[in-house]
Amino acid sequence: MKASRVGVILAALAAILWLAPFAWMGVASARPQVSGALDLASLFPSGPFSPDNYIEAWTSGHFPLWYANTILLCGGILAVQTVTVSLAGYAFARLQFPGRETIFTLFLLQLLLPPAVLVVPNLVMITKLGLFDSLAGVAAPYCASAFGVFLMRQTFRAMPRDFEDAAMVDGATRLQVIRHILIPLAGPGLAAFAVVSVTSHWNEFLWPLMAVSSPRAQVLTVGLASFTRGAEAGGEWGVIAAGTTLVAAPLLLGFLFFQRRFVSSLVFTGLK
Amino acid sequence: MRILAGAALGLSLLTTAAPASATTDIDFFFPVPVQGKLANEMTKLIDQFNRSQNDVAVTAVYTGAYDDTNLKTRAAIQAGRPPAAVLMSANFIREYVINDEAIDLGPLIAKDGQTPEKFIAQFWPAVRTNATENGHVYGAPFHNSTPILYYNTDMFKEAGLNPEKPPATWQDLVDAAKKLTKSDGKTMTRSGIVIPSNYDSLGWVVSGLAMSNGGDYYNRGWGGEVYYNTASTIGAVQFLDDLVHKHHVMPDGVTDAGVASNAFFAGRTAMMIQSTGALGFIRDNMKLPFKVAFIPRALRNAVPIGGASLLIPKGNTPAREAAAWKLIKYLTSPEINGGWSRFTGYFAPRMAAYDLPEMKAYLAQNPDAKVAVDQLAYAQPWFATFNTVGVRKALEDQVQAVLSGKVKPADAMVNAQKAADALLRPYVEQTALKLPQ
Amino acid sequence: MSQAVLAAPALGVRHRRILPHTTLLALGLLTPSLLLLAAFTYWPVMGVTLRSLTQQRFGQKPSWGIDNFVRLFADPHFSTAAWNTLLYALGTIVPSLALALLLALALREQGRLTTLLRTIIVMPLLIPLVAVAALFIFIFLPGGGLIDYYLAALGMAQTNWLGDPDLALGAIIAITIWKNTGYYMLFFLAGLAGIPEEYHEAAKIDGAGIATRFWRITLPLLGPTIGFVAVIALVNTLVQIDHVIVMTGGGPSDSTNMILYYIYQQAEQNMDSGLASAATVICVGALLALSIISLRALEQGIHYES
């Protein structure tokens, strides 16, 4: 009892440290733009909320379009991934076939090779497929996911076989079993995977920068970089803070709402 | 896969060939060297161009920083989808030529009834070398900069210095910096001067100091040689070392260009060396009174050129090349070039831009911009070699070690020369050392 | 447990009867993933491997050989990058896993305060690394940045965090720990929730103290989770270098250069695709070996449980 209270207190201290950059981001983004100010680093607001930085960030970019593209990209990747990882996860969890372990290891290879490592060959590939400069091209390399297959395999393995066996005895096909019994039961596992998938693709920078040219297919991180990566002079910290807040807000809010559900869904994946 | 690729190629040929008589769609890659506002301004410029005529429709693509733009352009070329035009760091052009990735603009210039010599003569002499290679023109300069000395006039007065007489020589600089530095016991609370020493900035600054110190720094006509282990460069690096470790007027370690600007805004440094391209940004953000001056000299005044030029990558159709050329001519016209210069702080490479009344009015109002233009008389070409970035880093890694007190300048330059020579070796073997059998 | 024992032989019988059908079905289910992996993982990897064995230097005809690997191992920048990567991996994985586990232990109870604290620790996961880099350039700003501003209040001198070759890697490590600890904590929370409460109760009755219970029950049962998280963390440290690109460019004096950044430099700045490919092959090989070892441990853990 006492030990756990000490633990919470120590964790609270860590949390204060963890929160500091966010606190600064919030305060700096809401400061009026009278820069050259010496107390730019202060964690306490120097006055009432000023929308200057948000207005400048919002008008320097095309946030509505970037939001739409990013949501489309993450949603599209997730939709295709759900199909590919469920099917493959089931095969590895439930079917006996020659070379299963070898093929599984081959799958895991992808875990180590995100497109950032293989930029040039992947660009050549999406160009050959006619997907260069489109959101589909950004999404393509991610449509198969070793991480997802791994998670789904664990999820399926952790489920009792009773339902499936009963359904199979009743004459259901494997695909029917997957669609009507396993997928609904795997909801929490899929939810956990969804959060991991959306988070990583929402935040990726280098690959979307490379794979897309047209402004109409630009995503949030690439857009944000246009005012965080100035080269010959200093950054405008307030605007950077405001832009970062705008980019991260949807995920932060989403996490605040679904926090409990997310943690409990991870438990169901059988990652013990 | 090959069938698919063939089909895609056929399709793209069809789509580009068909509307030859109508509008040609092209893409234009541009980096944003200073801040987000510039991306908007560039997009506005391109919209204006698109509305001004019906032959070419340009899509402006923001491609990150200079290095990102280089990376993205190269990746697009390798993937077989080169952009029609790119705004590229001016010293990368030589490498695009060496690797056969940029087109000679000569034929396009000839179609306008001009010669390459006359075309390039429209730009300031200092920017011509980086845009040409063996008499052929590969780049059209768009915006350029030189390093310049920014100083806080209040601090000058407070230290008993005359703000109207900024330091002109290295000796003046050291004397002034000593008076301007403030210490609180052991630690420096205000430095006399800050010089950006991150990758990219540092090589640029050192090349300027070496040239001011009598040297040449690199072989201007051929990309296989740099002069690091020479008296002129060692002296320049020793000067930097002394500012930190002997005179104690500059913070030790590496200072990022952005960090330098912030120190200047916050009054934590009295002087800094920074690009003229940052003039607009500094004018907007510096609340304390400041002025600019020529970079102090050792044996002679000399500063390197920086900035970017427009080039056309290889692999585009003639229709797209012609369309890109039209865009390039628009962007380098005196009106547009001058307008961009006033908006950003870069100087306009097109000389005629300075004959326009709005430019004359601007210079009269902004004496700091005039200093930047006057310094052009002493500007030298920007170092450009085979493997420019790697060869530059070979020097920078060593100078950074000097600034951190880890190695002495003479040893550092021996190391830097060795590393640079190794990087240049493959090119040297295929050019200067490829002798008749 | 008995369920599995009973099901296994029954399943075996069925399998023997319809084996080809099962194999075909498995093939069908794996095809979508395999096609995508072939296009975006195997094909590029084979390309990289072939290129690593192709000697092509400026203006010369390509030939086969191991020249790239010879040059790679002779390049001092590569050994620096490899050494930095090792320091970086150790410096981030060990503290962030330990911290994540401790935080998970402290915050596993449900409650308003623990929920809030968990949320705060996870928040860094949700913002892009490029944006984190931009924020931390300010945080580390010598003199006026967040850290120095508050350290100055404690009477400490300004520090050139990113500009000192002895400190820069540490600064990069600190950012990575801040960014990823919450992510790993989530996995540990899930793992802890999977340990039945009875084990602890039984041990308590036997008089085991808190430390004994941690070492004897919690840690062994968490073994597979730790293995899994270690793999994820290892991959993260190798591939997440957006902040290195933005903040230091590998400097000062190569002190934050990493293997992936080295590869990127060779490929895109020095245009030496042979050297870049050789470095990629070495990097992927090392990762693969380490991951297989960790995942084997994980697999075993799972088998023991069922």
Describe this structure in words.
The complex is a heterotrimer of chains A (272), B (437) and C (306). Chain A has 272 residues and is an all-alpha fold. Chain A has helices at residues 2-29, 52-60, 63-94, 100-108, 119-128, 135-139, 146-158, 162-169, 174-185, 187-202, 206-211, 220-228, 237-268. Chain B has two domains: 15-144 and 306-376, D-Maltodextrin-Binding Protein, domain 2 (3-Layer(aba) Sandwich); 147-305 and 382-430, 3-Layer(aba) Sandwich (D-Maltodextrin-Binding Protein, domain 2), CATH 3.40.190. Chain B has helices at 2-17, 36-52, 66-78, 93-98, 106-111, 116-120, 125-131, 153-158, 170-180, 201-212, 231-245, 257-265, 279-285, 318-331, 334-344, 357-365, 367-375, 388-403, 409-430, and strands at 24-30, 56-62, 85-89, 132-133, 136-137, 140-145, 147-152, 182-184, 187-194, 269-275, 290-293, 303-304, 306-311, 379-380. Chain B has a five-stranded mixed beta sheet. The longest helix of chain B has 22 residues, at 409-430. Residues 1-20 of chain B have low confidence and may be disordered. In chain C, 76% of the residues lie in helices and 1% in strands. In chain C, strand 1 and strand 2 form a beta hairpin. Classes of the chains: A mainly alpha (272), B alpha/beta (437), C mainly alpha (306). Chains in contact: A-B, A-C, B-C. The B-C interface holds B 67, 70-71, 74-75, 95, 99, 186-187, 197-200, 251-256, 258-259, 262-263, 266, 268, 386-387, 389-390, 396-398, 400-401, 403-404, 406, 423, 426-427, 429-430 and C 57-60, 137, 141-144, 157-158, 160, 162-166, 249-254, 265, 268-271.
